[in-house]
Each structure stands twice: as structure tokens, then as C-alpha cells.
């Protein structure tokens, strides 16, 4: 298939120990080819192709797909493939760590981090859906402009020294606040026009006063990012936490799409890239597999058709059971010709019954 947009992955500590090249294997190969090996669960990764049996595995041939390319150049690897996580580069679970802590995955680098190593105390797990770590916020610096409007605020700062550095800046920005108030007449109109249809998944920050509608001066697409960057916002040395559907608020103008490509984060605008979308798809597939095809067919018919189909099914089941019982009693093998003969006779009997039916009142 090539690279899969998102799939569950494992790393094999038996085949690729520390010092060897990192490699990832799919769920199927973890059972079929590495069933007795020491495996590290990597949860899910995006755009990854299974490495099992390629040049990274010196003495192993994939049982499911023996012919494989030597390397998968599109795959990305990190310390997770050696069973190490977070900025502390420790295993999980860590036998030496006595502090209970939740591990949270960054949606950009897809590494896992202890909550206490994110520079800020994470909100309650139900209050946010995705996290971007400190290093990735520095890499994706444009996200700070969005964070001021969209991000879920952390509970408290994890580093008191950081408080001392950031808080005075907020307190000393009274002149900036006055400028914002002076410009609010224009900004309120522009921002409200864009944000009004998008209020569903954002926390309300409006005082309730309605802004008059303004007719756009130009039909050219407006860059949401530039509008946000024109307002004061803080850059902090912390991770950020994001609500459901925040990706849909990112600008998709030509300039921003080019920037996403340069930073290799095009996936940020793809709602199907989220782990939630992956989990929902798995749930939907399971429900589809559990559905009974016969019941689906019956539900699509009217009452008369349902009765006729059930009668035909019961007749076929009874006659087929009796037919096979003869072979079982005689100890003979059922051949293809026997099956063909059965259905020919069954269809003949069905036609005879149909011809004898009375479709009119006497």
C-alpha cells in the first residue's frame, strides 16, 4: 500500500536494539513476524510504512510481504523507537519514576511527554483534545498568534521563574491595552465578521454587544494569520493545549499553505489526521463488521417482501440441511456437481410453487 495516513505501530527491541537503526512495524507484523519478541508500543504515527523485513532487519524476512524495498525514506523516527519518551528520555512505564503522571502525545513531532515536563500544568484531560510541545511551538512559531484566541489555558505555570519573566510584561502593557481600545471599533467589526460562523467550538469572549456588519472592501481572501499577528500576543516557553476542531480555524490562504509546506506541517489543516478521527473510524468499521447483511436487506424491504424473503430463506435452509444429511449418513463427499444439482432442483420446485399460486380473488 505504501505509507498509511495513520496506523498503530510497534518497535522491536529484539531485532533493532539500541545502537541499531530505528524501525517501526505494523500491528499485523507484530503478531505474525515478531510475536515472541520484545516490543515497544508506539500508539499511532502518521504517514508511515512498515519496515518489517527491509534492510534494517538483518536476519528477518517479513512473512506477510516478503518483497520489500530496502528503506522507507518517507518514514520519520525518534527516540520512541528505542522505548524512550519525553525530554527526559525515559522508558514508559518507568520503574524508577515514583511520581504518577499522565503521558500526552504532541500532534506535531508525535513524541510522548510527561505532563510535568511541558512547561505548564496541562488542563483537565476533558478540556483539551490536542497538545503541541515546547519544541514544536518554537518550530511552528505562527501558532502563538492562534494560541491567544484558541488555545485552552493551562491550569498554572509549572515554572515559577517563568512566571516572574512573563507576568510583568502583561502588567506593563497598559499602553497596548489603550491602543487596542482605540482600534476596537474597526477590529471588532473585522474579527466578528470572520468569527461569527465559527463560534460553535470556541470559548465565548464577547461581552454580548453586537457589531454592525461591514461589507468587505475587496474580494481577495483575507489572511487570518496576518490579522491575528497584528494584535499583541505572548510567546512563552511552554507547550500549548488545543480544543476540538481548532484546526479548522487555521488560515488556508495561498501564503499560509506555502508556509505549512515549508515547515512540513501540512497535516495541521487536515481534520482526518487527528487521533480522534482515527479512533472514530475504527469504531465505525467495527460497527459495520458487526452488522448482519440479512438484517440490512430486510430493513430495506416493505412488509410483504420481508415475509416472502424469510419464507424463502427457511425453505432453502430446511431443504439444504436435509440434502447434506443424506451425504453424511452415507459417508460420501459432497461434490461440485451435487451442489449444482441441488440448486437446479430447488429452483424447479420454486417455479412449480409459484405457478400454482393464486393471485386473484375467486
UniProtKB/TrEMBL annotation:
InterPro entries linked: UBR7, UBR7-like_UBR-box, Znf_FYVE_PHD, Znf_RING/FYVE/PHD, Znf_UBR
Keywords: Isopeptide bond, Metal-binding, Phosphoprotein, Transferase, Ubl conjugation, Ubl conjugation pathway, Zinc, Zinc-finger
EC number: 2.3.2.27
Pathway the protein acts in: Protein modification; protein ubiquitination
Coiled-coil residue spans: none
Function: E3 ubiquitin-protein ligase which is a component of the N-end rule pathway. Recognizes and binds to proteins bearing specific N-terminal residues that are destabilizing according to the N-end rule, leading to their ubiquitination and subsequent degradation.
Protein name, as recorded: Putative E3 ubiquitin-protein ligase UBR7
Gene name of the record: Mlo2
